[in-house]
Prior knowledge:
By secondary structure, chain A is mainly beta. Chain A contains no helices and 12 strands. The N and C termini of chain A lie far apart (about 40 Å). In chain B, strands 2, 4, 5, 6, 9, 10 and 11 form a 7-stranded mixed sheet that branches. A 4-stranded antiparallel sheet of chain B has the order 1-3-8-7, with no helix packed on it. The mean pLDDT of chain B is about 95. At the A-B interface, strand 5 and strand 6 of A face strand 5 and strand 10 of B.
Amino acid sequence: GNSVTQMEGPVTLSEEAFLTINCTYTATGYPSLFWYVQYPGEGLQLLLKATKADDKGSNKGFEATYRKETTSFHLEKGSVQVSDSAVYFCALSDYKLSFGAGTTVTVRA
Amino acid sequence: NAGVTQTPKFRVLKTGQSMTLLCAQDMNHEYMYWYRQDPGMGLRLIHYSVGEGTTAKGEVPDGYNVSRLKKQNFLLGLESAAPSQTSVYFCASSSERTTDTQYFGPGTRLTVL
């Protein structure tokens, strides 16, 4: 079946540091890939997505590229802010979403 | 647009009690989902619906029932709550296509004593 494995946290960074969260997947067919973000006390919201190989999703300074050859969809941001503190979930979709376990990111001022 | 709303936001139950969680969406989406979120396990799909009057089992359906009598509403029921059902429950909706974004509600925190 489909599955997602993402880097375990928690991750603690200083403001303006570079952030990478690794995500790899196992899937049959050609799923769409997503990063969702959950801010404290809230539901999940879409951060970015890619629907086919080599697509790059981007939003709010975050980027991720759909790499079919390495079955990966790593999330990156060049300079994080305190407001980026959240839990980040990698997910893939065929007829439903399969989520990774989530990575908690804390950014210190 | 309110998006996806969930009722209630918090609830405490005793073992064996029953309750219903209500999810409503105003985006005219066909697909609706119920997930549970537990520490270190991400979100796991409980049940989902591909349209009014339809429901299907997800990864962890045992102990839950659902109904989709109206397109905009998706109800999750616990007939006899157990401590293992202590969790945060999220509802989501999307249009038909698998490439589309799922929109999540704010969650219901349920504690079963």
